[in-house]
Please model this.
Amino acid sequence: MNPKMFDKVKEQSVRLIEQFGEFYPIAFGFSSNSEIIPVVTFFEEFPQIDKYYSDLVSALNQSNNHHSFSEVIICSNVSVGQTENEDAINALEFKFDSLTEERKNLYMPYIIVNGKMQFQEGYYTEGTLEFFN
Model:
């Protein structure tokens, strides 16, 4: 995962959580010119998350046609870890796919203390974003 792109996505996600408490998924691509390209989709107020996500992936594909991405990442604010004995906790979910690296997801659980995010230990899982097929 390109560290500059990851840092950019994480920075933007933290800003959105700290300022608004939530956000719709955001996407970035790493271009063949080594540029970090933000990708957006237009949506009506309060869209269904599944439709929004699908539209975001479509926008990522359209942007890829122009920028020839070698890596892409989509970040969402999710809840993880709910079990019978534990409540779910908030986490940033980074779905990553690349032409040259293994597809993976990174989860970074967090808590909010005095309006600031504090991260707990993150973990990787098998990737679910199948962008480069």
Strands lie at 26-30, 36-39, 71-80, 89-98, 104-113, 116-119, 123-126. The chain has two helices and seven strands. The chain has a mean pLDDT of 90.
